[in-house]
Amino acid sequence: MSAALESALPQSCSELEVVEQVGHSLNMNSLDMNLHTSSSRPIVLAVDDSVDNLVLLEYQLTAMTECTVVTAETGEAAVRLAQHSQPSLILLDILLPDINGIEVIQRLRQSPSTAGIPIVALTALARTEDRDRILDSGCDDYLAKPYDLDDLQAVVNRHLPQCCRL
Questions:
Q1: pLDDT tens per residue across span 25-61
Q2: For domain 40-164, which CATH number applies: 3.40.50.2300, 3.40.605.10, 1.10.10.10, 1.10.443.10?
Q3: The whole model's pTM is what?
């Protein structure tokens, strides 16, 4: 989130309140320009209920891409952020506290504005049946936690436009 946006929001906003305030205060056609002030860099949405995982993932993505990273800790926030920010890629944990990642995928695939966004599952669900179920639900790719940084780089490179890669 840009410093300009952070300073405009109350200190005690929940994640969903931030999403709602961003959605209400910005013209959806120019969200990328407003959300990231002077940046026109593509967006990667990282979704995980663990703040530690999100901080680490944001650091890794910033080091390996030319993208702005936006994060969400719940499925509901992920759906809203995806609709509002139109990311170039979504990295999605499946085990979320409110709605699970499968439901997030289904909602995003049903909406014309988000149906084409590549979604990569980053999950602790590592059994073959889990992987198959996740990919069958509409995920474009899958990476089991804990993942290797080279594997993360490869999956991100597969799904991000060439212009975003370092």
A1: 233 333 333 344 335 788 999 999 999 999 999 999 9
A2: 3.40.50.2300
A3: 0.75
